[in-house]
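User: Quick sanity check before I run a bigger batch. Here is a single chain. Can you write out its predicted 3D structure?
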Amino acid sequence: MADLEVLSEDGGLRVKFLLKDVTYGFANGLRRAILIKVPKLAMEDVVIYENSSALFDEMLAHRLGMLPIKADTSLFVFRDECVCNEEGCPNCTAIFTLTKEGPCTVYSKDLQMQSTDAKIADPDIPIVELLEDQRVILECSAILGVGAQHAKWQAVNGLAYKNYPVIEVGECTLCGECIEACPEKILKIKDEKLMVTDVMECSLCKSCEEACEKGAIKVNYDPRAFIFKFESDGSMDVKEILRKALEVVEKEATTFANNLPKRR
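Assistant: Done. Predicted structure follows.
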């Protein structure tokens, strides 16, 4: 049975965890689910009533679309599944408005929420600089989506995983060549022995193995254990993102299993 252990977490924004007793296929499936299948809110429709800034309307709308929105996604439904027939209603849409006149810099905090169910995750994201007599007046509609549709619906950044390193140290002459060669600086000599200080920081580059002329150090990996790390864009807590991704994997696996032809 698969085993998941959270190794570190930074205020709900970054997480590192160990996933054991799974295949490469499962590990990659979880990676894809985290990246492109966890639903979140993002600006989809922008109605611009006035824009005399230096930015074209399309560039301004794109910047608004990439703003991370913090919301309880369970309070919203996908617009194409809503009873409003995609007209836009409080069940599927969060409305933001913006009215600003220069000279000033327009920040994400200047967007006014028309609902308490959603807010911009970071209030200090610069959107556009307005000079004297320049104005921006607009209205935005945020809806649920997933990263497979567009990058603005990706809830994570810097998602990566690797196999769990396995380092074996044999009879060593303590020449120190492997210590100098290691880019991660995880090798040291202690009590007349070569020690690995943090095996999980190993990048599996095998520089230490290549530097050792005696062949005293061997770098390998566990094919059924993986170290994951990613950070949230601020729209959701990392543990919530991970939980939703696992739910997606479970749901899709169940659907696939139920559609397999039964043996006679």
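The chain has a mean pLDDT of 90.

User: Great, the batch can go ahead then.
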